[in-house]
Design brief:
228 residues, Aminopeptidase, globular, alpha+beta, 36% strand, single chain, 2 domains
């Protein structure tokens, strides 16, 4: 039996082993998401990353390998290292709910283009349209325009990750992100699962997450590779 703590140390791996198994692409001990859904991969043994990176890059232009304490060793025949994002994992201790005054909408496939456009406006580069299939997404609309969104990404039988916390630049400082994260976190708790999230170290949003009841528990690093 794999403990919750072990799953949290390698969230991509165990998401692809459990709830997101249908999205898994496997190469000799390395698991990747289908690149049309999410460009993340994970491993247990970093020596396996040499072969796997050379094979997986044939399916995408770039991807991340994610690990809390193990460094990948990619083969450089077809891939090039671009950068390392020093991130951290946050786990909910106790939810400190904020009042929800906005109308929060469960988004559907009809909103795919709006979700994609908003996320790429604020955080361009890595969100795929099919990332919508990973979990529930919620939004706030103003004047019939989607102006704030949050969603669910990695999932196992034990936890669900809060992700894609984005607000349109013209609608910031109105508490939309705070209300959406509160709502999404509560929905995860309603499923008897642990809410977690990941962010880069030094992100000002960490203060908001801490106010909600999340606590930094460990490093979680992203190594970005691209096709040569």
């Amino acid at each position: 039996m794999i403990s919750l703590e072990d799953k949290l140390k390698n969230p991509v791996w165990y998401s692809l082993k459990e709830t997101h198994k249908k999205f898994s692409v496997n190469f000799d001990g390395v698991k990747f998401y289908n690149p049309e859904v999410l460009t993340f991969g994970a491993f247990l043994d970093n020596s396996k990353t040499e072969f796997a990176t050379n094979e997986f890059i044939n399916t995408t232009e770039n991807f991340f390998l994610v690990s809390s304490n193990n460094t990948p060793i990619p083969k450089s025949t077809k891939v090039v290292f671009k950068k390392k994002i020093n991130g951290c994992q946050m786990v909910l201790q106790n939810l400190n709910s904020f009042d929800i005054t906005e109308n929060i909408v469960l988004l559907t496939k009809a909103h795919l283009e709006e979700i994609y456009d908003l996320i790429w406006l604020v955080m361009p580069g890595y969100y795929q349209k099919r990332s919508f299939e990973l979990g529930d997404f919620y939004g706030i609309f103003k004047d019939n325009q989607l102006v704030a969104v949050t969603g669910q990404r990695m999932q196992t039988h034990s936890f669900i990750e809060v992700s894609a916390v984005v607000t349109h630049p013209e609608y910031t400082k109105r508490g939309f992100a705070k209300q959406l994260v509160t709502h999404t976190t509560q929905q995860i708790l309603n499923q008897n699962k642990l809410p977690i999230l990941h962010t880069n170290k030094g992100n000002p949003a960490i203060q908001l997450y801490e106010k909600l009841g999340f606590k930094i528990t460990r490093d979680m690093n992203w190594w970005l590779y691209a096709k040569k």
